Amino acid sequence: MYIPSFNKFEDQQQVIAFMQRYSFATIVSVKDNTPIATHLPFLIKVEDDQIILRAHFAKANPQAKDSIGQQVLVIFTEPHAYISPKNYEKVENVPTWNYLAVHAYGKCEILEGEENKAALLEETIKNYDLDYLKQWDGLSEDYKRKMMNGIVAFEIVVEDLQAKAKLSQNRAETEQQHIIETLSKSADTTESEIATYMAQLKKP
Prior knowledge:
Elements lengths: L11 H10 L2 E8 L2 E8 L1 E5 L2 E9 L3 H6 L3 E13 L12 E15 L3 H15 L4 H6 L2 H9 L1 E16 L6 H12 L4 H14 L2
Antiparallel strand pairs: 1-2, 1-5, 3-4, 4-7, 5-6, 6-7
Helix pairs in contact: 6-7
């Protein structure tokens, strides 16, 4: 990912928090020189100082078979906002777009066995819908086994993490403040979230 020096998102804890907040990500692999992508909810953990991504494919998804043992890219991105030139002091300016994005690279490895699948599903339920866990626990083992037979559980140990926060860092202080004020008033939640991230950058 192209990342100018002033757009580097360098605080790893903040990067991990961003990935966990916007965890519905895109996994990209390559087959026969053609990129293939699937959109999945990921669990993001730090274990022994390594960032681990876990998720599952539908077994019927061809990318499941093609990704295992291969180097893949997982893209995390969510809030973004159009930045109008009206926020700038000079007339000679053009529009741009502010956003945050994280690219995580690593080898996709299968999580073998029913026990690992069950653990992944339980952790996923706890992360996204804790209230459902009791219902899941009460389902028959036969039903749960059939559900697990239809998925391919996997994990990725992140080998390269590239993070970018394009938040008008190259603009004048007054222009940054204009953008924050404009986006903060927006009814679009992604725009207001960008304003929040920009404001956080300005804090000492």
